[in-house]
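Appendix B. Chain record.
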Amino acid sequence: MQIAFRSFAGVLEKRKKFYEKEKQASGSTALEITTADIEELKSCKVPAMIDFGAKSCGPCKEMAPTLEVLNNEWQGKAVIHFMDVGSYNQGLEDFPLQVIPTQFFFDKDGLPFVPSEKLQEEMEFIMYNKKETKLHVLTAHQGVVTENQLREIFAEMGVE
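Structure tokens predicted for this chain:
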């Protein structure tokens, strides 16, 4: 599957500055976001996940308490974001979103997470590659992810 990524340097730089100011002011990373910024996620320097869902979605509501717990617990160790695609759509063009909930994972180096064989047997991941180069660009999971599954995923990326 070929994925087209759009780069708007000026817009990205403004978003990045806003994000950094917000993070410095609060001392924490917000769970709920209104813009999906793939470059921000890749530049976190810690493992990161963005969950696309909707506040009106039953399975998304089921995951909400887990996302809140892990976001609070892993401040400074990992970034957990949730974006309500029913209310916001900025940045969605960078993600091949087909259903909600869907999560995308990045390691501390900003690369797509590569799950172990064991984890791939337990959960179904979708690995997106660029058509021309076969370069792995995104790792996704569609559907509900439990707290234990998220802990396993992030443990493989070095988060305890």
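Further analysis of this model is presented in Appendix C.
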